[in-house]
Amino acid sequence: MLAAAKVNLYLHVAAPDARGYHPLQSLVAFADIGDEVTFSPLQSAGSSKNLISCLSIEGPFAEGLQADESNLILKAVRRFEAAAGVRVDRHTIRLTKNLPVASGIGGGSADAGATLRLLRELYAPNMPDSDLAAIAGAIGADGIMCLWSQSAFAEGYGERLTPVTLPEVPAVLVNPGVECATARVYGGYDAVGRFNEIEAMSGFLDVSDIRQLISALSHTRNDLQSPAIHLQPVIAEVLTALEAQKETLFARMSGSGATCFALCETDEAASALSGRMQAMMPAAWVRACRLG
Ligand SMILES: C[C@](O)(CO)[C@H](O)COP(=O)(O)OP(=O)(O)OC[C@H]1O[C@@H](n2ccc(N)nc2=O)[C@H](O)[C@@H]1O
Ligand SMILES: Nc1ncnc2c1ncn2[C@@H]1O[C@H](COP(=O)(O)OP(=O)(O)OP(=O)(O)O)[C@@H](O)[C@H]1O
């Protein structure tokens, strides 16, 4: 099951509430690339004594991620077991970690979301969407959007979703290989103390092609881009490099960073841009994809 990368096409953030959480408004889209979560039946049902041993992690970003209770996949399993009143003991879980960790494209939330979709299918097919969403939302602010992996306006703290139809857009994702801890980036936004208002955005409801999308995006921001650059200045280098390329129609950082995205007219343009960015930044993670 694909655990699709999430891209915040824009992200408007208001002042924190009493708990320190930030009301926001974002347009999120999902890529056709991501991590892979696979469930395999155990040889003898019920033979797993310890679920920790049932999660294995492989792939280019496996290193540094623990296959223990700190992993969002096992957090999803635990919460699902409690909500459904079942024991998840008939399968092993394999995560192929293709997405960089703590990179603003929701990898951990997407892994949890893919896990929950598979768990429902295999262990509680009658569980309503609302129950599954409640589990995903308890795991993180991006949990519900990454559970459904559908383009949407996200409001509230990221949990209130309005589906939106976007054109499929060729894109390039670039992560410079530095981690951005979400809480630190929000903390940097608070430290500056210049908070934006969140206005209703209607310009995206009838977007049918990439030009209209970019025109609507030009009136928006990612309010976390500046505090993320303050923490990791290399993000500004990525954006400058992307903006200087002829294939780039629009470039911005996603989420709390450090991954940046460029939107392109065609798949060929995205592929050419991806190749050139990788040559310019050999240590970076660079991928051409489609957002939709
Ligand atoms: C930046 C975004 O990715 C945009 O979609 C999200 O707002 C963050 O989503 P996430 O990574 O799932 O966030 P969580 O794991 O729930 O929270 C991490 C930390 O981010 C901060 N946080 C998160 C969401 C939000 N609306 N306001 C916040 O201030 C809190 O300090 C929290 O402790
Ligand atoms: N399966 C997982 N994949 C990635 N990170 C995980 C996973 N399980 C736990 N984590 C922890 O969660 C934290 C956030 O990782 P993640 O990759 O989801 O961040 P992100 O891409 O910045 O997400 P967002 O865009 O939602 O802020 C990391 O510090 C990581 O150690």
UniProtKB/TrEMBL annotation:
| Function in brief | Catalyzes the phosphorylation of the position 2 hydroxy group of 4-diphosphocytidyl-2C-methyl-D-erythritol.
* GHMP kinase C-terminal domain boundaries: 206-282
Pathway recorded for this protein: Isoprenoid biosynthesis; isopentenyl diphosphate biosynthesis via DXP pathway; isopentenyl diphosphate from 1-deoxy-D-xylulose 5-phosphate: step 3/6
Q: Which family does it belong to?
A: Belongs to the GHMP kinase family. IspE subfamily.
Keyword Electron transport set for record = no
Catalytic residues (positions): K6, D142
User: Care to name a GO molecular-function term for this sequence?
Assistant: ATP binding
Task: Name the gene for this chain.
Answer: ispE
Q: Give the source species.
A: Asticcacaulis taihuensis
This protein's name: 4-diphosphocytidyl-2-C-methyl-D-erythritol kinase
Q: Which PANTHER family match?
A: 4-DIPHOSPHOCYTIDYL-2-C-METHYL-D-ERYTHRITOL KINASE, CHLOROPLASTIC
EC number(s)?
A: 2.7.1.148
UniProt: ATP binding residues: P100, V101, A102, S103, G104, I105, G106, G107, G108, S109, A110
Q: Mind telling me which SUPFAM superfamilies this protein's record contains?
A: GHMP Kinase, C-terminal domain, Ribosomal protein S5 domain 2-like
**InterPro entries attached here?**
GHMP_kinase_C_dom (IPR013750), GHMP_kinase_C_sf (IPR036554), GHMP_kinase_N_dom (IPR006204), IspE (IPR004424), Ribosomal_Su5_D2-typ_SF (IPR020568), Ribsml_uS5_D2-typ_fold_subgr (IPR014721)
